[in-house]
Design goal:
Elements (H helix, E strand, L loop, with lengths): L2 E4 L3 E4 L4 E5 L13 H9 L7 E7 L7 E7 L4 E7 L7 H6 L22
Antiparallel strand pairs: 1-2, 3-4, 4-5, 5-6
The structure holds zinc ion (ZN).
């Protein structure tokens, strides 16, 4: 069972959350001027990597608030959660941070995980 640490409520089981897809997808600044191809890429195309993925989640059976998470799709580990207003963490930030369990305790052996660049 995947445990997600809601930034507002604390650790909860994944079944309380709904995935909102990739985070940090920039809407075209002037939608009237983009081509149909560019618009369809904005609406439908996502990176879908094997590895580090920045995604949106909503605590749909809890506080109903949206937040962002960084998840390794190959291990299904949530590496970091952060509020929507916070900046996207860099890969260097993720490499230099120690993973913690949802209760905030350091996870055994988590200090040396490797972030694969995609
Ligand atoms: Zn919550």
């Amino acid at each position: 069972m995947l445990i997600i640490n809601c930034p507002y409520c604390g650790p909860r089981e994944q079944c309380e959350f709904t995935n909102g897809g990739e985070a940090h997808v920039a809407r075209p600044s002037d939608p009237e001027k983009v081509s149909d191809k560019e618009w369809s890429e904005y609406v439908f195309f996502r990176s879908n990597p094997k590895g580090i993925y920045f995604e949106r989640w909503v605590h749909s059976h809890g506080c109903k608030k949206w937040f962002n998470a960084v998840r390794d799709t190959s291990t299904d580990k949530v590496l970091k959660v952060y509020e929507i207003k916070d900046e996207k963490p860099s890969l260097a930030d993720l490499e230099n941070s120690n993973l913690t369990t949802p209760s905030g305790e350091p996870e055994v052996g988590s200090g040396n995980f490797t972030v694969r660049k995609i």
